[in-house]
Amino acid sequence: MIIFVNGQETQVSSGHTAHDLLLDLGFEKRPVAVEVNKEVIPRALLPDRLLREHDQIEVVTLVGGG
Q1: Which one-letter DSSP state was computed for residue 34?
Q2: For the chain, what are the domain ranges?
Q3: Which of 2, 9, 44, 58 is the most buried (most CB within 10 A)?
Q4: Distance CA 56, CA 64 (A)
Q5: Neighbours of 51 (CB within 10 A)
Q6: What tens digit of pLDDT does each residue of 31-62 get?
Q7: How far is 66 from 4, CA to CA, in rounded Å?
Q8: How far is it, in rounded angstroms, from Cα 19 to Cα 34?
Q9: Distance from C-alpha of 42 to C-alpha of 34, rounded to nearest angstrom
Q10: What is the pTM of this model?
């Protein structure tokens, strides 16, 4: 199925979760915020959030500093 990650069309298999997507992208251990269709998803809920056709996902990397 087709989803959009940070504006880029991406193909994933049916039944993919937001957590699976982070694993695919190599973000599983990095501090990130994930938004699906303009809704921020708490990291603890990512394994339960199934992705759907044409979902719009934003993955934002958090960077420390001042």
Answers
A1: E
A2: 2-61
A3: 58
A4: 26
A5: 21
A6: 999 999 999 999 999 999 999 999 999 999 87
A7: 31
A8: 10
A9: 8
A10: 0.87
